[in-house]
Amino acid sequence: KLYIWQASLKSTYANVDNYQCITIDRLSTYSLRGKTATVETLNKSIFGQLFKHLHYIDPKKLRHKSKEMGGPYGTWKVDFVGESSIDQGGPFRDTLTQSVTDLWAEHVMMLVPVPNNRNNTGEFGRDKLVPNPTYNTPDHLQMWRFVGKVMGIALRINNPLPFDLPSLVWKVLVSETITQIDLKAIDESFYQINERILKCNPNDIDGFQLTHVVVNNAGEEKELFRGGDKIPVTGENYIDYVKLCQKYRIDELKEQCLAIRTGISTIVPVGMLNLWTWEELELNVCGKKGFDIE
Q: CA nearest 37: which of 105, 101, 100, 128?
């Protein structure tokens, strides 16, 4: 895998010696802290400023070698407004990392805590984050594609980034099948409730007084279909109801995750991702470097 991956990167290197020079107003972002996310606060964040400068340029200009492979100090050079800094790699790494940590800041909220965090349930993974299911407009999807470009840059230049995402997200990126265990890992209560329903005697289902609604990953109640809040769950349709709930919870994140994958594909050969397990992708984006080369 390592040989194939390195050969694939080498064949797609571009813009080896040239930086994108951008201006970032970091000082203005300090006033955003603690504010509720709006379009304005998102656009003024470090992530939003990088998106404005870099998303719509030719992605070939973001395909650099890593420093270890003889590449430059970073993928872009930063001039911080009102600050004295010469970018020899530090300001680049600062903005690259903050573009990720911004994603779950209160004034951005592109990523939200998994339900297990809000509900204080589940043995592991309460610190994980998932795409905000309400951030699915065409403009938001462009931003998710930029998130993918940031991941691709991390892979290309060996610069680990703190994407604390659950298996469900990583699996979409490498085209692995999502299972009930992945849903359980982000929402134990959702999993347990569904299991309880499925184990019930069909004659007892009416006692739950359920309708065809589901709580999404942001904690909001949503209809499974139009008028679903008026349709009761009965002993005849309860199995279909559980399937619809599970499908909804997977599908509400899939559009954002597929947009991320599209963004990655503009920076690294996306077909190579399918050689990896989701764990390998996570390791190589977020930290430990290493491949199963056997």
A: 105
What are the residue ranges of helices labelled H in 65-187? 90-101, 115-119, 138-157, 167-173, 180-186
Contact 112, 165 (CB under 8 A): no
Length of the chain: 294
Pull the structure tokens for residue 75.
């993928």
Residues with Cβ within 8 Å of 93's Cβ and at least 6 positions away in sequence, in order, are 74, 159
Between CA 65 and CA 6 the distance in angstroms is 11
pLDDT digits (tens, 9 = 90+) for 7-50: 777 777 776 556 788 899 999 999 998 899 999 999 999 999 99
Tokens of 4: 């194939």
Place of tokens 């573009």: 99
Tokens of 148: 């993918």
Torsion of CA 247, 251, 257, 259, to 10 degrees: 150
Burial of 55 (0-12, 13-18, 19+ CB in 10 A): middle
Task: Categorise residue 34: left if φ over 0, alpha if ψ from -120 to 50, beta otherwise.
Answer: left
* Beta-strand pair 221-223/129-131: unpaired
Tell me, what amino acid is at 82? G
First CA to last CA across the chain, in angstroms?
8
Mean pLDDT within 159-167: 93
